[in-house]
Write a structure and sequence with these properties.
By secondary structure, the chain is mainly beta. The protein is built from three helices and 33 strands. The strands form five sheets. Strands 4-3-2-1-5-20-16-17-18-19 form a ten-stranded antiparallel beta sheet, with no helix packed on it.
Length: 414
């Protein structure tokens, strides 16, 4: 059960959208949140929604803003905040943030810091460094010719606005801070960033996607006060929020679940002109199903300009199967041809989703179609199967996204 401490405090009227576990939505003025209920006025009537049934509280009128801070804090719990004046000693890290004020955290609460302004040419490399597991600190620097990033593995003992003290092979080297693009701090073997998951994810209005994960939150007037995973009470203006996500522990992303079966039959139909030109093993390596990225493995899923951090990109002809063990009540997702190939002509792919022996959804998905939002009932279903087939007898543009596929855990299941 979600551990959430919320005071019943009247708020200034705030337009909000409330998403429920059963797929229903409520739109109205947010009045209060208590430990048990979310209160809104909807069409002039007071509505009390059980907080255990609430997935998210969104504020659609909150416009995303470009952050003036160029440095970024990546926390071990998955939080990300833009800031300035990042400094670190052997015991603690401090920073200033525009939305959350002064930050102070123990060193083990910080996964990485980016000390320089974002350089789009380095984004992919930097994200790769963030995913690496190393027991040593990685000091990431830009190559002098600007061709990319490089790193040194050692120990960072101190970070100031001027220098980064770096212990390499027993010698302390003061590296000018302006030369350091970022630092990914070492972690003990076996530890994972974001392990355990937050109780509440507070998404801020920064266009860069800042998010504050919290153990508890409470509302005091126009301020949201969140108890962070590193133990600091952080205050954020309510009008700086885009979303309060309460879904932790209630959903599971399909792309994070191990497949019971995954079969790839090849990118070209039998007897087609190109069938058999590429060895099956090479075809699967190049065009097999991908999780949380497109077939080319270089970008996230995108459907008509909307980007998704979670989901599957499946090329025809592929079949995948998952064991659900009757634990889930529904699946929400958006399906469509990925933007990477959707504008390369008129083509189609066939999608069939089956629960045990029952067809839950079957449709031809064309490159010209708008993305299709789906909510499929999974009550009592043990096995989920997704088949992506050649919809028009050709494999051209058959990059089907099952984007943001969320399985809702049934209330009576752990």
């Amino acid at each position: 059960m979600l551990v959430l401490t919320l005071l019943a405090v009247l708020l200034a009227p705030t337009d909000s959208k409330i998403s429920m576990l059963d797929g229903q939505t409520h739109n109205g003025v947010l009045l209060a949140i208590s430990q048990t209920d979310v209160e809104i006025t909807e069409k002039g009537a007071l509505v009390e929604l059980p907080i255990d049934d609430v997935m998210a509280i969104e504020f659609p009128v909150a416009a995303a803003a470009v952050s003036a801070e160029t440095q970024v804090l990546h926390f071990s719990d998955g939080s990300q905040l833009h800031g300035t004046s990042i400094a670190r000693t052997a015991k603690a890290l401090t920073a200033q943030t525009g939305l959350c004020g002064a930050i102070e955290a123990k060193v083990d609460a910080i996964h990485a810091v980016r000390l320089q302004a974002d350089n789009p040419s380095y984004t992919q490399q930097w994200n790769t460094f963030l995913k690496r597991n190393s027991e040593k600190d990685n000091l990431v620097v830009a190559k002098r010719d600007g061709s990319g990033l490089d790193f040194l593995a050692g120990i960072v003992s101190n970070v100031t606005s001027d220098n980064v003290e770096f212990l390499l092979d027993g010698e302390t080297i003061p590296v000018p801070a302006e030369r350091v693009y970022g630092i990914v701090f070492g972690r003990p073997a076996g530890s994972k960033t974001g392990a355990g998951g937050p109780d509440v994810a507070v998404q801020l209005t920064s266009i860069a996607g800042d998010v504050l994960n919290a153990k508890t939150i409470m509302l005091e007037g126009d301020q949201v006060k969140a108890e962070s995973a590193w133990g600091q009470l952080v205050s954020v203006p309510l009008n700086q929020l885009q979303k309060i996500d309460l879904s932790s522990g209630r959903i599971q992303f399909l792309s994070e679940m191990p497949a019971l079966m995954e079969r790839f039959d090849g990118i070209d139909p039998e007897n087609s002109l190109f069938a058999g030109l590429i060895a099956p093993e090479q075809q699967k390596l190049l065009f097999g199903p991908q999780r949380n990225m497109t077939i080319e493995r270089q970008s996230r899923l995108r459907l008509r300009g909307r980007e998704f951090s979670k989901g599957l990109c499946i090329h025809s002809r592929s079949e995948m199967q998952w064991e659900l063990d009757k634990r889930f009540s529904a699946m929400d997702c958006v399906v469509g041809i990925d933007d990477e190939v959707a504008f390369n002509g008129s083509h189609a792919v066939s999608l069939k989703i089956t629960g045990d022996d029952n067809v839950l959804f079957e449709q031809l998905i064309a490159t010209t179609d708008d993305p299709v939002p789906l909510r499929l009932s999974l009550d009592g279903i043990s096995t989920l199967t997704i088949l992506v087939d050649f919809g028009d007898g050709s494999s051209v543009c058959d990059w089907l996204d099952i984007a943001d596929a969320r399985l809702i855990i049934a209330k009576d299941k752990p």
